[in-house]
Each structure stands twice: as structure tokens, then as C-alpha cells.
Write a structure and sequence with these properties.
Elements (H helix, E strand, L loop, with lengths): L1 E3 L4 E4 L2 H9 L4 E2 L6 H6 L8 H12 L4 H23 L4 E3 H18 L6 H19 L6 H18 L7 H5 L8 H32 L1 H9 L4 H11 L5 E6 L3 E3 L2 E3 L4 E5 H4 L35 H18 L4 E2 L19 E3 L4
Parallel strand pairs: 2-8
Antiparallel strand pairs: 1-2, 3-5, 4-10, 5-8, 6-7, 9-10
Helix pairs in contact: 4-5, 4-13, 5-6, 5-9, 6-7, 6-9, 7-9, 9-11, 9-13
Length: 359
């Protein structure tokens, strides 16, 4: 635990303390006007706790349970992955964030919400502006006008879907009498689902590719035993979580470790640091696809705000990385344009340039 004057709050580094903060919503809440995502898109399941959190989350939760995800999305994800690889395969080179990971995540999440007629390019533009706005607010800046504009355009795309019959889409269901959410609440939650789904999945895929291609010995292990791929994805999430920080606010004076936290204090959990806690992960800076407890990372958070789309994100990442390795022989990072994950809140490579062998 450290007090960091730069952002006027506490920074939690240890994994056990991170679990304590994320698991105790009564003491460490997201329900505060300072919460950056709430400033950009309004109240949602991400910015509320207690009964209101459940009211917002429940209408969206059922389709994202593990069995439902596998049943509804396996064929869709596989088809979209192969379609995107078909488009880039002949060139022998690509920037995989823009040509593969981003479009895959955007297509799948818009389909899951029922926004099938919405242009993927437009969705990616809104998402980029909203993520940039959240990052700016988290860093202590003002809410950019581009973030407001992107959310407005997203709202305009969502509202016609809400007028359709319940059962026609997840959004229409959430806004129905049974779903119990007002239109503005559905829009805010849809925004969270969109940028969360794209950001987490795009970052998972990009970071996993970087880790595997940067460690030929670990890549060779996965090539020899494809059954290691799921654990390799988990190890990548541990080493470089796509969402590196989560914010909470103390609801009362409390002690955490040796820190005297006061009511209203910002308590920022470094997921990146907790995932490299040597007390939990020996040799924490090493990328090890055979790490036995890799799945104990906190990349999807824990407690009541555990990521609602984690099963879908995993399905996409497993399918995407596996098919890239299968279909693009000699896949490697472009030595002329190297890149590595970066970012304050959301971490992934700014670009992911790769090359492979062609006939």
C-alpha cells in the first residue's frame, strides 16, 4: 500500500490486498461521482454497487455464462476468425490490432448485444474515443469532447434497437418490462459492454501474440502441445492484463495492511502489480506457459464486479491465437517495427506488426 500524491489516492500492489478491496464492495465502492467510466457513459453495472448494481447487471448476465457462451458463440467466433485471416493471409504481413483483433472483438460484441446492423468501423471509432476519454479522466484530465460525441453517436445507434420486440436482442430484452431498465440505463450498460468487450478481448489477443512470439522457447512448447494454449493465454493475462487498474472509494475509515484509509479516499488497485506478486507467482516477470497457477491472475477482477464477458473473451482469444498459429506459417514479430504493450489503464501494443511465410 502506498499513498501516491500524483493521483491523490492509495495504490494497492499486493495480490491479497487487491482481493480484499475488490471483494468488499460495502467498504470499497465504485459508486462515486469521481469514477472515470461513470463520467463518460453515466451510471451502469460498472459504476454501481449493492442492489442497484444487481439491477443493472442481471439483465445482461445470463447470455454470458460459460455454457451459453459456448453454445451461442463458438461457431460465430470461428467463422469470423477465419474470415479475417482469409483477408490478410496472402500479404504475408499485417498489423494485427487493426486488421484482426479489433474487428473480431467488435463484430462479436455487437452481435451479442443485437447490434448486427451497426457498422464495425463505426463501433471501433466510438470505442477508441470512449477508451481515450476514460484514460484521460483517470489521469486527472477533463472529459474530452470526443468522448461525449462518441457516446452520443453510440446512443443514437442503440435506441432504435430498444423499440423492437423483447426477444429480438439482448438490448431489447434489457429494456423490456422483464428487464426492468430504463432506456438511458440500457444505453450506458451497452456502452460498458461494448468498450469492455472490445478492449479486453483485443488486448488479450494482442498481448498473447506478443508474449508468444517474443519467447520462441514458450512458443515451441505450445506448438508441440496445443493443449497448452489456454494456459498460455492465462499466463499472458497474468503478465500483462489488458486492464491494468481498477478504482474503488472507501465508504468509511478503515485500515488496510498498515494504511489508515479515510472515508472518501481513492483506493486504486494495480492489477498489473498484483499479478506479479512474488508471494503468489514465483519468478513473476517470467512468461511461463506451464505455470500451474496462471489462472489465479486478477485480470478479470474479482468479487461482484468480476468481468461479465470473461468467458466470451477467453473463447475469442483461444480461437484467434490458435488459428493464427495454425494458418500463418513462420508467424513472427516484424523486426523492423517492434512494439510492446503500453498504457496507463488499458495496456496493449499501440501496433502489432507481424510477418509470416507465404507460398
Amino acid at each position: 500500500m502506498s499513498w501516491v500524491p500524483a493521483f491523490g489516492g492509495w495504490l494497492v500492489l499486493r495480490r491479497d490486498l487487491a482481493l480484499q478491496v475488490m471483494g468488499d464492495a460495502a467498504t470499497f465502492t465504485v459508486d462515486d461521482r469521481r469514477f472515470s467510466t461513470g463520467q463518460v457513459v453515466g451510471p451502469s453495472m460498472l459504476t454501481l454497487d449493492g442492489g442497484e448494481h444487481e439491477r443493472h447487471r442481471t439483465p445482461f448476465a445470463r447470455p454470458f455464462r460459460l455454457h451459453a457462451v459456448r453454445e451461442r458463440f463458438t461457431d460465430l467466433v470461428a467463422g469470423e476468425v477465419d474470415r479475417l485471416i482469409d483477408a490478410i493471409e496472402p500479404a504475408g504481413e499485417a498489423e494485427l490490432r487493426g486488421a484482426f483483433a479489433g474487428p473480431l472483438a467488435a463484430t462479436v460484441v455487437t452481435h451479442s448485444l443485437g447490434l448486427r446492423e451497426t457498422d464495425t468501423g463505426a463501433v471501433l471509432g466510438w470505442y477508441a474515443a470512449i477508451v481515450a476519454a476514460v484514460t484521460e479522466v483517470t489521469a486527472g484530465g477533463e472529459l474530452p469532447a470526443t468522448g461525449r460525441a462518441a457516446f452520443s453517436e453510440l446512443r443514437d445507434a442503440i435506441e432504435p434497437v430498444l423499440d423492437r420486440e423483447p426477444g429480438s436482442s439482448l438490448l431489447a430484452d434489457a429494456g423490456s418490462d422483464a428487464g426492468g431498465l430504463r432506456r438511458a440505463e440500457v444505453v450506458s450498460n451497452a456502452a460498458v459492454m461494448l468498450f469492455g468487450g472490445i478492449e479486453t478481448t483485443e488486448g488479450m489477443i494482442a498481448n498473447a501474440i506478443v508474449h508468444l512470439l517474443s519467447h520462441p522457447d514458450q512458443l515451441a512448447l505450445v506448438a508441440a502441445d496445443p493443449g497448452l494454449l489456454p494456459n498460455a493465454i492465462e499466463e499472458s493475462l497474468r503478465l500483462e492484463p489488458a486492464a491494468a487498474m481498477v478504482d474503488r472509494y472507501a465508504t468509511a475509515d478503515v485500515r488496510l495492511a498498515d494504511a489508515a484509509i479515510h472515508r472518501g479516499d481513492l483506493v486504486r488497485v494495480s492489477v498489473a502489480a498484483a499479478n506479479r506478486d512474488p508471494a503468489a507467482f514465483p519468478a513473476p516477470d517470467r512468461f511461463d506457459v506451464r505455470r500451474e497457477n496462471a489462472r489465479q491472475h486478477l485480470a478479470f477482477a474479482r468479487g461482484p464486479h468480476v468481468c461479465i464477458g470473461m468467458h466470451l473473451a477467453r473463447l475469442e482469444a483461444h480461437t484467434a491465437v490458435g488459428r493464427l498459429l495454425d494458418r500463418l506459417p513462420g508467424l513472427r514479430l516484424d523486426p523492423e517495427r517492434p512494439s510492446a504493450p503500453s498504457g496507463l489503464v488499458f495496456r496493449k501494443p499501440p501496433e502489432l506488426r507481424v510477418v509470416w511465410s507465404t507460398p
